[in-house]
């Protein structure tokens, strides 16, 4: 196996992003989170701000039905819908595939586990934790009044789940879509990283 890609989906406050950064450091590879937005903008020529506006959240669909599940199609600049939310997603997906084909890396969110599900070099992880742990982590991270933090966590996770369902037709919480599901509240960040590395060694041991 020439390169290994780890995708991480995460509940808000579970520390999935921190675990991803720690993992990338341990593996000696690049970490991609919002960098995907920049790369998709460069790939498409579409303003980066348009990608950022819909990054892992639904904006234009209050009551949506899942679209045709992502299959890799891209609209050209002279086509209607070139800057639509669907096409922005498609360009991000193209970038994810390019990364998976050329380098080892850690990718946060953006339906990467679904987009790369047929790649044999991809390890998909879902990081979760109980409410109290996520709440504690969120309060330490964002400047939001304590009385509003529960609603903020719920809203953020709903954005991610709706975004995932719309673009993939699948459920964000469906554990069948992941190789590993880790409770960061019970394991702690360091041991989550250890578990992912152990899985990689077992699965790709030559």
Helical run tally: 9
- CATH fold node name: Rossmann fold
Judged by helices, strands and strand pairing, the structural class is: alpha/beta
- What string, H for helix and E for strand, traces the elements in order? EHEHHHEHEHHEHH
Beta-strand segment tally: 5
- Give the overall shape: globular
The CATH architecture comes to 3-Layer(aba) Sandwich
For the biggest sheet, the summary is: 5 strands, parallel
Helix fraction, binned, reads 40-55%
Question: How are the strands of the largest sheet arranged?
Answer: 2-3-1-4-5
Q: N- to C-terminal separation?
A: 8 Å
The CATH H-level homologous superfamily: P-loop containing nucleotide triphosphate hydrolases
Evaluate the radius of gyration.
17 Å
Indicate the proportion of strand residues.
5-15%
Low-confidence stretches: none
Question: What's the pLDDT, averaged over the residues?
Answer: 90
Q: Give the CATH level 1 class.
A: Alpha Beta
Number of spatially distinct domains: 1
Keywords:
single chain; 206 residues; alpha/beta; Rossmann fold; five-stranded parallel sheet; 9 helices; 5 strands
Task: Outline the secondary-structure elements.
Elements: E1 5-10, H1 16-27, E2 30-32, H2 35-44, H3 48-53, H4 85-102, E3 105-108, H5 112-115, E4 122-128, H6 131-141, H7 146-168, E5 180-183, H8 184-187, H9 189-203
Helix pairs in contact: 1-9, 2-4, 6-7
């Amino acid at each position: 196996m020439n390169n290994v890609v780890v995708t991480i989906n995460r509940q808000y406050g579970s520390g999935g992003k921190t675990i991803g950064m720690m993992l990338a450091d341990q593996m000696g590879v690049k970490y991609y989170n919002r960098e995907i937005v920049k790369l998709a903008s460069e790939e498409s020529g579409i303003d980066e701000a348009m990608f950022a506006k819909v990054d892992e959240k639904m904006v234009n669909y209050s009551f949506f039905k899942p679209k045709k599940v992502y299959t890799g199609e891209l609209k050209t600049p002279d086509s209607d819908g070139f800057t639509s939310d669907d096409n922005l997603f498609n360009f991000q997906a193209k970038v994810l595939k390019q990364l998976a084909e050329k380098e080892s890396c850690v990718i946060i969110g953006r339906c990467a586990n679904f987009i790369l599900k047929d790649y044999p070099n991809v390890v998909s992880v879902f990081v979760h934790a109980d409410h109290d742990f996520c709440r504690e982590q969120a309060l330490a991270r964002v400047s939001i009044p304590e009385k509003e933090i529960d609603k903020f966590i719920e809203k953020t996770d709903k954005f991610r789940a709706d975004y995932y369902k719309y673009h993939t037709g699948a459920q964000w919480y469906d554990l069948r879509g992941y190789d590993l599901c880790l409770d960061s509240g019970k394991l702690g960040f360091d041991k989550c990283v250890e578990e992912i590395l152990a899985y990689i060694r077992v699965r790709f041991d030559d």
